Amino acid sequence: MPLKNNSENTKKVLDYRFSFANERTFLSWIRTALALLAGAVAIDQFVTTVEYPFIRIGLAIILAIIAGVLAISAFLRWRANEKAMLEERALPYNHLLSIIAILVLIAATCFVMLFLVGH
């Protein structure tokens, strides 16, 4: 017996262009997270001439934490956007972005301190 074509049996399909755009945004967030992680590793391994190593270690840890949070946030944001688009709702705002901006500001401040102490 064939299924009736009603709203319960029809699965909604998202326009692939929007899905691909959402995926590209996800991948750009992941690229940024990887760059931050690479920066953390580089600072930890190659910045050895600092008089106070706690600045170097602290900066590397901050960058690594930001990278991890950004990667998790990228996935959660991608998933929430896909769901919102399928349900034809407005895309959700992510408050974590302002927190990440503050963490990057802290990392930049630590980097300036590292630079000033090293010179």
From TrEMBL:
Coiled coil: none
Location, primary (coarse class): membrane
Residue ranges of every copy of the DUF202 domain listed in the record: 17-84
Keyword Membrane among record annotations: yes
Pfam families: DUF202 (PF02656)
Keywords: Cell membrane, Membrane, Transmembrane, Transmembrane helix
Annotated localization: Cell membrane
Record has Transcription as a keyword: no
Classification via InterPro entries: DUF202 (IPR003807), IM_YidH-like (IPR052053)
Membrane topology: Multi-pass membrane protein
Spans traversing the lipid bilayer: 26-47, 54-76, 96-117
PANTHER family: DUF202 DOMAIN-CONTAINING PROTEIN (PTHR34187:SF2), FGR18P (PTHR34187)
Name under which the protein is recorded: DUF202 domain-containing protein
Organism: Orbus sasakiae
Species classification: Bacteria, Pseudomonadati, Pseudomonadota, Gammaproteobacteria, Orbales
